[in-house]
Amino acid sequence: MMKFLPLVNWNNGMVMIAIFGVVCVALVGVVLVFLYSGKKK
Question: Global pTM?
Answer without folding.
Answer: 0.55
